[in-house]
């Protein structure tokens, strides 16, 4: 069987014949290569005559100057305004003063049925530890506010 297949393959190859290139195949390929070489040489001569220029001497300075003028300062607006903070501190100071002044006595207020007297009576029962915690928290918040304002003044 294998011999039969080999015979059929040989007969088929004889019928097909050998592939021969066109008569001027080598000449046409050489012409294309020579044309490419001529174009490359012309391109090199043009590039040598008209070389690419580099950036100007102060290019970097001009770009940096343009960047600095385009940058706008970021304005950070606080969520709570200064006036509101002053009001909060005033209320806290009044509460602490009332707690210290009324803390040691068990006197009844002059007006028994008012909301203020009820608040004063409740403040009389505040423990000194809670008052100390409020005072320390106030000192810490004031310190934080003072340092942040100082940092803003240094940055600007």
Report on the structure:
With 156 residues, the chain is mainly alpha-helical. The chain has a domain at 82-151. It is 72% helix and 0% strand. The longest helix is centred in the last third of the chain and has 28 residues, at 128-155. The chain starts with a helix and ends with a helix.
Question: How does the SSE layout of this entry go?
Answer:
Elements: H1 2-16, H2 25-49, H3 59-70, H4 82-103, H5 115-124, H6 128-155
Helix pairs in contact: 4-6
Oligomerization state: single chain
In total, the number of strands is: 0
What is the string of SSEs from the N terminus onward?
Answer: HHHHHH
State the end-to-end distance: 98 Å
Spans of 5+ residues with little confidence (pLDDT < 50)?
none
Strand coverage percent: under 5%
Shape: elongated
- Tally the helices: what do you get? 6
Q: Taking Cα atoms only, what radius of gyration do you get, to the nearest Å? A: 48 Å
Percentage of residues in helical conformation: over 70%
- Main beta-sheet strand count, sense and barrel state: none
Briefly say what this structure is.
The chain crosses the membrane at residues 84-105, 125-147. By secondary structure, the chain is mostly helical.
